[in-house]
Amino acid sequence: MLNHSGYRGKSLAFLQKNNVRVGDVVKVIADSSYSGILMPRYEYSDDEHIVLKLKSGYNIGLEIDKIKIETESSTNMKKENLPQVQVDPKLPKLLLISTGGTIASRIDYRTGGVTPALTAAELNAAVPELGKIANIDTEVLFSEYSENLLPEHWKKIAERIDSCIRTEYKGIIVAHGTDTMQYTAAALSFALTGIPIPVALVGSQRSSDRPSSDAALNLISAAKFLVESNTSGIYVVMHNSINDDEVACHWGTRVRKNHTSRRNAFQTISGSPAYIVKNDSIEKNPQFNYVKREYTPRINFDTRIALVKYYPGLDPKIVDYIISSRYKAIIFEGTGLGHIGKIMYESVGKAKKKGLFMGMTSQCIDGMVSMTVYESGRDLLNLGIIPLFNMIPETALVKAMWALGNSKNTEEMEKLMKENIASEFSD
């Protein structure tokens, strides 16, 4: 049954009768003639059709009662038959770490959904252009959708990167799911402050086996960026438009995923990307200024932080629950310049008395928190809430986890939160 994955009933009998297996290159005669690879089907599909992947990359379904089929050649789809990557001693070395996500995914023909399937080695072999840019070592750190990643995963990624700092690697690619990539980018930016080599988190909005996939160009551009940009730090490298014309390199603490499915879903907040990679050039944003620091890795995170988005009707008991649950800090996502309603004031006062750090960010996509403009903002300042400039709420949350994890007390944490560690806010 492995050679007929997902096929059953009439379609299975049809394939067995014609001695055709999944992975074979076949010719199908229907209203027209088609050539392609016989693909698996997901287990909930009917038994009236077969699926063919054409040379264009698109799949078509064909009704078995209306076609004739014959094998043109037999293809072994096993991983061990991947082409070997040629090593060029003249090229620099990069490390590609796979953590999972759509960039390392294929269609799951059991359910019809996208599932983690590709290893880092498969990604490398599937994009031969990478071998012309650098010699790329690959490893799988874990294989998870990014919504399943936790701060403990951030720590493992940071520790693995830190172990490579004094090696011959010129840079590191982290293949990562896009849904929480901005969180991981921020976490690495704080944990590896002053890192002397560039690190590119790379994702894909479309799975690698789709013809519209952005995986290949993102990977190629990331490799080119790491080798040629002569920079350092943590970046998110993704399409800059819906076309295959340029790729943006976003600073790790200033990036956000702003669209569910577009290939240019990621945007730099309060500015433009740090670099743009085009076919023959890498353009640096003249306003981007990377301040070099001494490399001081601090790879600890404490998750006793709550991110609270204020809205009309929010029950202040949520803050009371956070206090009783022994959390150490609250990051508020306030309205406008940094406000929350009067109904919250009493609970905020309780949190202050219990020694919780409280920081204010804004729900607005862009702009500075400014809590001295209106009376309500000044009231919140008096209650102990600290304005966090134009820090992105998600970045502020991650920074708070990092600051608490690397502090002896909330006073030390507050000092770190006010310090511009990794260009997370504008001076």
What are the salient characteristics of this protein?
10 helices; Rossmann fold; 427 residues; 5-stranded antiparallel sheet; 24% strand; 3 domains; 8-stranded mixed sheet; SH3 type barrels; alpha/beta; single chain; globular
Main β-sheet: number of strands, strand sense, barrel status? Answer: 8 strands, mixed
Rough outline: globular
Beta strand %: 15-25%
Record field, number of beta strands:
21
Distance between the termini: 63 Å
Domain module count = 3
CATH superfamily of the largest domain: L-asparaginase, N-terminal domain
Proportion in helices = 10-25%
CATH architecture of the largest domain, by name, is 3-Layer(aba) Sandwich
Poorly predicted ranges: 76-80
The total of helices stands at 10
Mean pLDDT rating: 89
Q: Output the CATH topology of the largest domain.
A: Rossmann fold
Alpha-beta classification: alpha/beta
- CATH class group of the largest domain: Alpha Beta
Q: Using only CA atoms, what is the Rg?
A: 25 Å
The main sheet orders its strands as 9-6-10-11-12-13-16-17
Describe this structure in words.
The chain is of the alpha/beta class and 427 residues long. The protein has three domains: 2-73, SH3 type barrels (Roll); 79-284, 3-Layer(aba) Sandwich (Rossmann fold); 305-418, 3-Layer(aba) Sandwich (Rossmann fold), CATH 3.40.50.40. The chain is built from ten helices and 21 strands. Strands 9-6-10-11-12-13-16-17 form an eight-stranded mixed sheet, sandwiched between helices. Helix 8 (375-382) links the parallel strand 20 (357-362) and strand 21 (386-387). Helix 6 packs parallel to helix 7 (345-353) and helix 9 crosses helix 10.
